[in-house]
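Late entry, written up from scratch paper. The run itself happened at the end of the previous shift, but nothing got recorded in the book at the time, so transcribing now.
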Amino acid sequence: MSLIRSRFRKAANKLVAEYTVSTHFDWRLYRQDIAGSIAHARMLAHQQIISEREAEAITEGLDAIREEIEQGKFQFKTELEDIHMNIESRLIDKIGEVGRKLHTARSRNDQVALDLRLFTREKLSETMESLKGLQQAIVGLAEDNKSIVMPGYTHLQPAQPVLLAHHLLAYFEMLQRDNDRFRDCLRRVDVMPLGSGAVAGVTYNLDRHFLARELGFSRISQNSMDAVSDRDFVLDYESAASLCMMHLSRLAEEIVLWSSQEFGFIELDEAYATGSSIMPQKKNPDIAELARGKTGRVYGRLTAMLVTMKALPLSYNRDLQEDKEGLFDTIDTLLSTLKVFTGMISAIKISTKDTERALKRGYILATDLADYLVRKGESFRSAHGIVARLVGYAERKGKSFSELDLNEYKEFSPLFEEDVRSISIMSSLKARNIIGGTAPAQVEQALTTAKKILNEAED
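Output as recorded:
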């Protein structure tokens, strides 16, 4: 008979048992479950609810069970439903009746809430470390190619020249916001729920602050009903992960475009590309494409959890068993994407020939010509119209701006002088010497700031 079916005379229907079992995925919480149980046993002894000798036996038994699991010797029993009951049942088998005392002053409701918080806290630290790794790869690629100029695009049309490093550092900023969001998640997950019992707290004289210290929490929950039913921290992670995957998907799209023959800005390392089953010439950006696809998967997990939570009355309901698979999948998807992107970005090669070729298309200095007229006294709106007509004329003649003579310029405005020829890609870049701009001096400062942020994150 299951440890939790004593009230029933009938065994669970086979289909019910299969439907409710969660061991096949929640086994991943074994380390957290054992850590929480050891802390709970020590606290029970500290409060003289059980003896020190009993706590030692429980602790030794749990340590041995952890080794069994990690060595692949532990036999999970589906009839015991979940990782928590599997571990408790095995503990009783190993140390006898003393093992039955572990669950004193504890419910599975606050037990699983604790385990999931411990797991999420650990994965948050790993996530932020992986984010930093990708940021370092981006900064490294930007640093190695900080003199390369490329078109900046709006509407996927050439707009204005920018430094490649400036473009890459935009993703550093996105990932830094992601880091901030995950750090905020870490603050909110840092609440110790054990001691809340099933719904109303427990009748034993527990020392919840002792538990918090043992488990490394800075705060304890203040309402037992909220503590056992709160999964905001799961939603926090999944929400932050969705935003992060959106940023990675945008970067993936850039990689797909830039590695295409039409752009040719980058060459992917062969270790981060795939071939075709039928076309031997192909070198496909499948890693980036998969990241785009997996982004929708992470969004789906967030939506599913929001729908699960939206109508749950207080306090614990079995619907909450659905919190783990989505969270585990989101964590696995995000971490694997961050890690493979770090390697892919680090190995990218830039094609300066193709970035220079792209700068010659699309009359990319048009805004600089308009600004030139403004400095000569023209209003910006009028200057905009003048240059727009000049672009149309140049297109019809099949000429670039540099191929127009001064008389042609003057047909559109008498304010054009010989110094109009000083407008160049480099002058365009240098002119944008404002915080956040693409001027070489500003990008150099941005690189310095980015490296400082990463160095501080290591301290």
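The CA atoms of residues 435 and 442 lie 6 Å apart.
(Scratch paper discarded after transcription.)
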